[in-house]
Design a protein that fits this description.
Layout: H1 2-10, E1 30-32, E2 38-40, H2 43-55, H3 57-76, H4 85-101, H5 108-124, H6 127-132, H7 134-140, H8 154-166, H9 170-188, H10 195-214, H11 218-238, H12 243-255
Antiparallel strand pairs: 1-2
Helix pairs in contact: 1-3, 3-4, 4-5, 5-8, 8-9, 8-10, 9-10, 10-11, 10-12, 11-12
Length: about 260
Amino acid sequence: IEVSEELDSTSSLDSPDCSLRTAVYPFALLAARTAEVYEFRHRVFFDLANERSRRVRKFRHSLRKALIEVGQRWHRSDRLAQLSAAEQETFCVLMLQQLEESDHEDQSFELCLLAGLMGLFEQQGQYSKAAKWLERLVSVWPIEEAVSLEIVPFYTQASLAKTLLELGSLEEALQVGSGLLTAKIESLGDDMCTHEDFGELVIAQRNLGDVLMYLNRWNEAFDQFEAALENVNVLLKEVGETAEHLEELSVVQSRM
């Protein structure tokens, strides 16, 4: 519905009866499948709309643009987090399809979508699905450059590094893992580190250490685990022996 409103607002049609809103009410061509997704009530309506959109290229371009603009708004807000995992997957795949066919130059949205989609698959253990998007991810992820945490959030990147490791894409996992640690350090600047910052540093150092260990770069891996252990000890000293920090201590020590 939000996409239809976006299209209606930019339409040159004078008659309100031609707006997409009227497809829902009063004509009832569309009906709610979920709280966020509408679908055609009958197959014939879909076929006619699909045929029309294919013949009118200008409309397809406008529809694609509206989908991307609404998708970006949803991604910047908490709207996406309110969807189920299946709906989030549908959203990410839909947006990636639109971006692939558009002349959209800003790759930050594509990076977020790909990393988020891979994270969804990692949470569900669906690595075969994640593998299908690996080539697309590699083609757009910056080489030897950290991705800002403002573009792709910390835990999304951390999950992505784990997914790549599970897929056996060690060089790509190293690229993401080292970039994550760099991005985290750069985000701190000259400000005092919070306990959350120390916790994220530990995760970034441990993740990178895991990748280096798989690459048989033992000394470098040990250095990362040692740095992570130092930060865990800071947390234990300042925050106390929480279950989360004790678990992290156990993991880092076992790695060493």
